[in-house]
Write a structure and sequence with these properties.
The structure holds two protein chains of two kinds.
Chain A (H helix, E strand, L loop, with lengths): L7 H20 L7 H20 L7 H24 L1
Chain B lengths: L12 E3 L2 E3 L9 H27 L1 H8 L4 H26 L3 H31 L8 H33 L7 H27 L4
Antiparallel strand pairs in B: 1-2
Helix pairs in contact in B: 1-2, 1-5, 1-6, 3-4, 3-6, 4-5, 5-6
Amino acid sequence: MKDWTLSNAQIWVILVGLTAVSVATGEGRMLGGFSTVVIVAFAVTKARLVVLDYMEARHAPPLWRWLYEGWLAAIALLLLVTGILA
Amino acid sequence: MGGPLFYRPINQVSWGGRAMNAKTRLSGTQGIWTFVFIDMLVFSAIFFVFTSERVRLPDIYAQSQALLNGWLAFVNTLVLLTSSWAMVGAVEAWRQGDAKRSRLGLLLVLLLGVLFCILKIVEYWEKYEHGISLIENSFFSLYYFITGVHLLHVAGTLLFIIAIRRRMAAGGDAVPSVPTVENVGLFWHFVDTLWIYIFPLIYLVGLK
């Protein structure tokens, strides 16, 4: 299988793109109640890219990587559940 | 700390004065990873208070959220994301021994960081002009607290960036080590990560 990685510039483009779509979804009230799911999914994707690639947690010893990824997942779940409940 | 899960000294080779192996490599020092994780836990508690208050007072939170300037926060998000990209370049340049490019990258981070602070102050000023203070209601108390603590993180890291740029320029014994520059970079990326969550938390989720 071909081993591929995103360049830092490509990651930045993805981060900006996801941010723009999140804002359009939220500010435009485009998807109603489903917008919370989209906004949180994009936020955790962005946060993972920064932590794994810019902070280089992808190559860090496993416990550090999983502690950080666990935090990202926990906060995303908190946002998602309370966003839907409210 | 120092157990095998945190640090695996297999096939050790030098990387910025630390042990590493072909599969795992720790950018920066163990200390910064610990410090950032403690900070993450502190923010978890703050985020929990905000979200539980949103569930308790959904109408007040929705009405208050509608008074925020989401577009200013959007621009600030782009500013921080771009600064993180510049920081990656600065750290990589320092690893390669290219001080000039590293200092240039850090200067860009510095300018973008200052821009973030200015835009945040403009946002606070807008609220002040509309008579919205930090004791307005639960939403605005937490809005000022969360964004204010984050702003302090940004400003504090900017001071470290100024310091290492000066040390890079000074040369000799003052020159910062690779892990020192990586540590500052890691904390900057963490500040960016925090904002990636603060932005939807306060400005986007729950808009009606």
